[in-house]
Structure formats: structure tokens, C-alpha cells
Design a protein that fits this description.
Distance between the termini: 48 Å
Mean pLDDT: 77
Strand order of the largest sheet: 1-2
Number of helices: 2
Length: 70
Amino acid sequence: MSKPVLEPAAQAFADATANPPYLFELSPEQGRKAVDAAQSPQLDVPGTPPSAGRRTHAPGRRTKTVSPPR
């Protein structure tokens, strides 16, 4: 059986999470921090310039609202 081929970002995530400590080995507080960090990267939205969205702030979160070009 051949190894699955992943997109570069997916492969990087798989490689980064392949070794201990695993999520189930962390305390609830550490686990929440790990999941928050994994789910809140700064992403570039293809086809939009970096200035296309506006950044908003929520406690403990980074968000970006992207609107279609006008």
C-alpha cells in the first residue's frame, strides 16, 4: 500500500502532530491551548489581497472577515 499524498499544509500539520505529546495526553487546559493554536493560524485567502479583509478581535481569538471585491 502506498503512502497517501497530502497537500503541503496538510503534510506539515500531520508531521507536526505525529509525535508525543498527543492531545489526549495533555491536561484540559494544555489541550485547549493546543487546539486553539492549531485552529487559528494566519491564512492567506487565494485570490484576495491581504488588505481585502478587516481584522476583528475577540477575547483569545484572532479573526479576519473577508468580503468579496466590489
